[in-house]
């Protein structure tokens, strides 16, 4: 199968490319490694889609909580993502290419521009008969120093500073999914695309853990690493504790405990 991965240099995209290449011909597309691949320009995908069998739509202007807090309510952030979605979905419609859109557990959170944008992407996807993978806090290889995600950020602090300084109290909870488990799930959804019962699936570890507990798991992997909590509260996700739908478990189940996933990242 000839597969195009949009956002191939991102935290998920990089690992997904490696995973898919075991059995498929995979084409990468990301502005990070090639400025020509800018989805904000109309028809940029048309030259690619003629010979493509399947597309993973991972590309988005996004980062961790610090990045979102700083940029998600700016005109550039909103405009970038609207352009990316409009142009990409327009090309997918022209070529009638089957695809999976990577959404987020934050989709539809009315206080978040990022969440609302992902919800718009879901609506596009429904109109085009694509499939939605609603991803829950996937962690893996970090590719950008300005788009830090919490687990890789904490690992970097522990490694280079010998301490983890949290911005919040750490009482907020998340469901973290190791990137290799996520890639396995996305691959299964692609291979079962025409026999899936639903158009939308939550892809999660299905286990809640506080950010503070994550910090202590990471600290335990380093000698004399201390954890210092902050005094702020989570004002990005606002500790929304809506449980994910479990439909995906019919086809796939997460396999990597967070302690093991963190250890893999540290060893890398």
Summarize the helices and strands and which ones pair or pack.
Blueprint: E1 2-6, H1 13-20, E2 25-29, H2 46-49, E3 54-57, H3 65-71, H4 75-95, E4 99-104, H5 113-127, E5 131-135, E6 138-139, H6 150-161, E7 163-165, E8 173-174, E9 177-178, H7 179-191, E10 200-203, E11 209-210, H8 211-219, E12 226-228, H9 258-267
Parallel strand pairs: 1-2, 1-3, 3-4, 4-5, 5-10, 6-9, 7-12
Antiparallel strand pairs: 8-11
Question: Would you give an account of this structure?
Answer:
The chain is an alpha/beta fold and 268 residues long. The chain has one domain (2-267): NAD(P)-binding Rossmann-like Domain (Rossmann fold, 3-Layer(aba) Sandwich), CATH 3.40.50.720. 37% of the residues lie in helices and 16% in strands. It has helices spanning 13-20, 46-49, 65-71, 75-95, 113-127, 150-161, 179-191, 211-219, 258-267; strands spanning 2-6, 25-29, 54-57, 99-104, 131-135, 138-139, 163-165, 173-174, 177-178, 200-203, 209-210, 226-228. The strands form four sheets. A six-stranded parallel β-sheet has the order 2-1-3-4-5-10, with helices on both faces. Strands 6-9 form a two-stranded parallel sheet. Helix 1 (13-20) crosses helix 7. It starts with a strand and ends with a helix. The relative contact order is 0.14. The model has no long low-confidence stretch (mean pLDDT 92).
